[in-house]
Amino acid sequence: MWEIDYRVNLELFIACRLLKNKEGANASALIVKIAVSSVAVGIAFILLSIFITSGFKKEVGKKLAGFEADINVSGDSGNEAIVCSPALVSALKEVDAVSEVYRYTMKPAVFRKGDAVCGIVFKGVDSLFNPHFFLSHLKSGRVPDFKEKRAVYEILVSSRLANKLKISEGNYVRADFIQTPLRSRKFEVAGIYDSGFKDFDEVTVLCDIRHIAGINGWGDFYAGGLGILLRESYEIDDATDKVYDVLSEDPLIGGFQIRTWRQTVPMILDWLELLDMNVLIIIILIIIVSGFNMVSGLLILILDKTVMIGIMKALGYGSLKLRKLFLYVALGLVCRGMLWGNAAAFVLGGIQYFWKPFSLDPETYYMDRVPISVDIGSVFLLNAGVLAVAVLMLVVPTMLIAKIEPVKSIRFD
Question: Which of the chain's termini has less CB crowding within 10 Å, N or C?
Fold first, then answer.
C-alpha cells in the first residue's frame, strides 16, 4: 500500500490544513473573508462585463449583416452596375468561408401617403436573398416572396415608417424614385419589421430587385452589388481575400470594389471599440482593487500566524519555505474567490440569456434587452491572467516573513 509522503511538499500540506481550518471568528478571519469576497465580486463583474460586451458586438454584427451583409461588392464608383453572372455567384458560393450570396441594388425614393412624405432607400434583392434576419424581426404581415417568376409589387417596411405614414400591412403606398425623368410605382405593404436599429429602420425598404433594374434600364444579371454572408467560424479579413481572388478571375464583372460592414458603418465600429476600452478600464481597476484587498488580507494572516512562523523557524524551517507556504494559502483563497465569482457570473448571465429580465432603451443601444454571449476561451484566458497577476502581487507581502525573529514571535500575542 502506497503512502503519501508530505515531506516532499510539506508547505502545500500545511497550506491545505490552514485553508480547511473552520475555526476562528477573529478579526483576521473576517478580513480574509472580505478579501475573498472582493475577488469573487470582482471576477463576477469582469466576466459579466465581457459577456455583455461580446453580446453587444455579436448582436450588432448580426443586425449589420442583415442590412449590409458581411462583405459588399459594388462598382468602382459605388454607383455603377456590375455584372453578377450565375457563374460568378456559383464560384463565390464555393468559397469555404461563404454561406450566402445575393444580388442587390439600392435606390433612393420618396414615399407619399396622403399628406405624409418620407425619404427612404429601396433595397432591391433577388431570389437568392435569405430573409431570415427580417423574419426574426417581423412584427406583422409577411416578407414578400422574391422567388416569383414575375416581379412582385410588395414591399417590407419598418414600424417607424409605418407609424410616420400611418400605414399597415395590406395598405398601398406610392413611391417617387429620385431621377430624371421622375418615375413612380405603387406598392402594397406586405409586412412590417422592427430591428431596433433606428438608423436603418428609418430609411430601409425591402423590395424586388427587378423593379429597380427596370427603372434603371439594366439588363439581366446587372445589379448594384453583391451581398456576401460569411460562416461564423471565419475571420472577415481572410474571407475578403478569398472573395477578391474569385472576383479577379471573373471576366465579366469589370471594375469593382469590396467593402466590409466595418468600412460601411465606421461610426458603429468606433462605438464598439469604445465599449472594449471601457471593459479594459473596468478590468484593470477591479484587478487593482481586488489585488490590494488580497495583499492586505495576506499581511493580516501572516501577522495572525506570527507565533506559528516563529515556532517553525525555531525548528529550522527556512524563510523561503515559509513564504512559499503562505503563498500557497493566498493562492488557495484567490482560487476560492475566483470559483465563486465564475459561478455567480454564469448564473447571472444564464438568467439574463434565458429570461431577459434586464431591458434597454432601443433608441440608444439598438436592442431592447441586455445581450449575453459567452466565449469559453476568453473565460479561461481571463482566469489565467487574474491568477498570474495575483501571484505577482502576493509575492511582495510574503517578504515580511523574513523579518520575523523566532524569539520575539514566539512571545507575540
Answer: N
